[in-house]
Amino acid sequence: KNPEPSTLYLDKLLSIAVFNHIKPVVIITKADISEGLAEFYANIYRKAGFPVFISSSENGKGVEELKEYILSLKGICAFAGASGVGKSTLMKLINSRLAPTSGKITLGYNVKIGYYDQENRGLSENNTVFGEMRAEYPLKTDLELRSTLALFLFGADDIEKRISTLSGGDRARLTLSKLILKKANLLIMDE
Fold it and tell me: Which residues, in sequence order, are bridge partners of residue 28?
């Protein structure tokens, strides 16, 4: 039997993660597939060396169950799973953009979070590229801000463009340039 399309997509994500030296975590919800099939796929991914978390709750509400599991992870990791499994919810919980329904999330000492939102919602449409950087980092020198923008291929003419006129790729580069100056030690990227 051919694998489900979502399984092929997951395999592609895992390949990309491994190529980029990221240790992915496979999250499987029993709400998506039968228990036997969940264990079948889990064993395949475990044999390939990937940590696997199987959520026992229905309707993809397994975020609470991940708490202890996530605490055991160290270094760089990626969460890959089907829609509705709780990946974005988990990232929003860690980043305090969403309150937990029970318990609490406590970050370690001196943890500084950098959050990359795939829709780049943190940008002000009326600002120029340079104005956006200045608003975020008022104490940085012009040289520091311009140098950072140059690292992300924003030239002298580009930094005067309004954000509302930027392409999606330009917006992503601007968001990343803002993140790099934050000097975060926990980077959360919701893709």
Answer: 54
Using CA atoms, how far apart are residues 95 and 85, in angstroms rounded to an integer? Answer: 18
Place of tokens 């104005």: 131
Comparing C-alpha atoms, which of 119, 54, 112, 111 is closest to residue 86? Answer: 54
Which tens digits make up the pLDDT trace of 19-50? 656 666 666 655 556 667 777 877 877 777 77
Instruction: Give residue 25's Cα distance to chain centre.
Output: 13
d(CA 26, CA 176): 26
The pTM of this model reads 0.60
Kindly compute the dihedral angle of the four CA atoms of residues 128, 129, 131, 134, in this order, to the nearest 10 degrees.
170
What's the CA gap between 76 and 118, in Å, rounded?
19
Distance (Å, whole) CA 55 – CA 6: 17
